[in-house]
Specification:
The protein is globular. Helix content is 51%, strand content 6%. Strand 4 and strand 5 form a beta hairpin. The protein is mainly alpha-helical and 429 residues long. It has 18 helices and 6 strands. The chain has a 3-stranded antiparallel sheet with strand order 1-2-3. The relative contact order is 0.12. Bound molecules: acetyl coenzyme *A. Acetyl coenzyme *A (ACO) binds next to loops.
Length: 429
């Protein structure tokens, strides 16, 4: 049933009748597209607290109920039964693949995993102690210079090829960035290995001896990648869509997404969590950390706590918390920071400050501890997130490019500067 909202401007008495749009599930939205034309007013919503920026059929979140669906499938079911590559196929294509469809997708991703040899020279241009996120962002952006003959975003076949290339090459480039910073020779991707195992080999294998990789390592990584693969219109995905709305090439769009992900309020939080846990040091210091986080003048927040959308619990955090214990046990890792994390979680969940503000552990609270157990260095944590989120970014970019009547993203503002005034020559100022 269609409905409208009537808005009257108290300034001008002009009225706008605005349609209310509904999705398949979730809240409706007032379509304010004609508001300015009809009343001369804008809406104001910095941080997009109440604004839907697009229609999308990829991911659904109910933040109050702690629900996350990829193409309708609950994250808990995908975490239990699917794999990262199958989930990537689902995000991009909308349906789970048949055996043949999956084989073909896996073949394509595997056979596009090499990076251009010239990229090695490109990597060598970075300073040896560059942050891997800086290197990843620059290198992914540079891919447009290597594949400029297939950048026609109007061509579905070229769009698909770019999507496959991005998912296939980002683990290779990520591992190469890491190895460059530690002075190890770059390892080529091995086609006989599955996606996550291949990545771990490229990270850790040395020419002098075979890599002894515990089975649980690739499984844990695959699960983490499923949980991080998409999260509707988060800051980095919205950035990809904003850049994509200009008709920019997919490598530029994903590089922009990586830049947005890097911030500590977004994907940089997993690195920040580990630094915070190390700073707290021991469980008996947790009380002090909680008090600091509650003190607005301290400038300190509990990293890995709180979420713009989840105001009950983050379903990904529940899965990761359980996995964290399993992985550490299976690898025989005794990490004192896990004790600090558990004590911090327990103390925060009992504290009225965190209860009243509905601040719960988010996906990043425990993921860093698992990465640490897998011997992934802290500065690579956000890179890991970027590898997984590339599937989501690419799915949104593909969806955006098949949306009829898509418009360039161009918000307006409330101007707070000087009104019109006359230029004065420098001698008269
Ligand atoms: N520690 C202490 N206080 C917090 C925290 C925190 N982690 N998060 C929010 N608050 C407080 C705020 O100070 C504010 O208090 P007030 O109402 O008294 O002013 C209230 O809770 C609401 O916070 P906002 O910043 O308005 O909430 P918003 O939805 O804008 O921010 C965010 C969400 C950015 C995730 C925030 O909770 C945060 O900074 N968390 C820590 C960083 C983090 O873990 N980021 C990862 C997010 S998940 C992801 O990107 C994968």
């Amino acid at each position: 049933m269609s409905s409208n909202v009537i808005l009257t401007s108290s300034d001008s008495d002009k009225t706008a009748t605005l349609p209310v749009l509904s999705g398949s599930v979730g809240p409706s939205a007032i379509d304010i597209g004609k508001l300015h034309k009809e009343t001369g007013m804008f809406t104001y919503d910095p941080g997009f607290m109440s604004t839907a920026s697009c229609r999308s059929a990829i991911t659904y979140i109910d933040g109050d109920a702690g629900v996350l669906l990829y193409r309708g499938y609950p994250i808990e079911q995908l975490a239990k039964h699917s794999s990262f590559l199958e989930t990537s196929y689902l995000l991009i294509n909308g349906e789970l693949p048949t055996t043949d469809e999956f084989r073909s997708f896996e073949h394509d991703v595997t056979h596009h995993s090499m990076m251009h040899e010239s990229l090695k020279t490109f990597l060598h241009g970075f300073h040896y102690d560059a942050h891997p996120m800086a290197m990843l962002c620059g290198t992914i952006g540079s891919l447009a210079a290597f594949y400029h003959d297939t950048l026609d975003i109007e061509d579905p076949a070229q769009r698909k090829l770019a999507a496959i290339r991005l998912i296939a090459k980002i683990p290779t480039i990520a591992a190469a960035c890491y190895r460059y910073t530690i002075g190890w020779p770059i390892r080529y991707p091995r086609n006989n290995l599955e996606y996550c195992t291949r990545f771990l080999h490229m990270m850790f294998e040395v020419p002098s001896e075979p890599l002894d990789l515990p089975e649980v390592a690739a499984k844990a990584l695959d699960l983490l990648f499923i949980l991080h693969a998409d999260h509707e219109q988060n800051a980095s995905t919205s950035t990809v869509r904003m850049v994509g709305s200009t008709g920019a090439n997919p490598y530029a769009c994903v590089a922009a997404g990586i830049a947005a992900l890097w911030g500590p309020a977004h994907g940089g939080a997993n690195e920040a969590v580990l630094k915070m846990l190390a700073e707290i040091g021991t469980p008996d210091q947790v009380g002090k950390a909680i008090e600091r986080a509650k003190d607005k003048n301290s400038g300190f927040r509990l990293m890995g706590f709180g979420h713009r959308v989840y105001k009950n619990f983050d379903p990904r955090a529940t899965i990761i918390r359980e996995m964290c214990h399993k992985v550490l046990n299976a690898l025989g890792v005794q990490d004192p920071l896990l004790d600090v994390a558990m004590k911090l979680e327990e103390a925060a969940l009992k504290d009225p400050y965190f209860i009243e503000r509905k601040l719960y552990p988010n996906v990043d609270f425990y993921s860093g501890l698992i990465y640490k157990a897998l011997k992934i260095p802290t500065e690579m944590f956000t890179v890991m997130f970027a590898i997984a989120r590339t599937s989501g970014w690419v799915a949104h970019w593909l969806e955006q490019n098949t949306t009829p009547d898509a418009k360039i993203g161009r918000p307006r503002q409330i101007y707070t500067g000087a009104p019109s005034r006359d230029y004065r020559p420098i001698s008269g100022r």
